Amino acid sequence: TTRRAEVALAHDPTLRPLELTPIAVSPGVVELHGWVSTRAERAHAARTLAAAPGIESLVNCLLVRGEDDGPDPAPDLADQPA
To answer: Among 16, 36, 48, 76, whose Cα sits 20 to 30 Å from the Cα of 62?
Structure first.
């Protein structure tokens, strides 16, 4: 399943340079990880892999730069050891 996802990504000129990582979760189920520039790229990647032969279900874990890479929340000082 991972190999089929990799082939689908490699054949798409928009997705090829993005270095996305498909991970087989179970037979026919793939998680897709990585960063994209826009929500449109995220949706395009999901549609492309969902249409690939042998992939029955896709878990889209792609993150969008500028939206999902905000600052880390401030640490909760109450959780710090004395």
So the answer is: 76
To 5 degrees, how large is the angle CA 48–CA 49–CA 54? 130
The SS3 of residue 22 is strand
The two three-digit tokens of residue 6, written as one number: 């990799």
pLDDT over 90 percentage in the chain: 79
Distance CA 42, CA 16 (A): 13
Distance CA 22, CA 7 (A): 10
In the Cβ-directed half-sphere of 9, how many Cα atoms lie within 13 Å? 24
Cut 0.85: pTM above it: no
Q: Which amino acid is at 69?
A: D
Q: Where are the alpha helices (DSSP H) in 1-82?
A: 2-10, 39-50
Token pair 């449109």 in the structure block, residue: 40
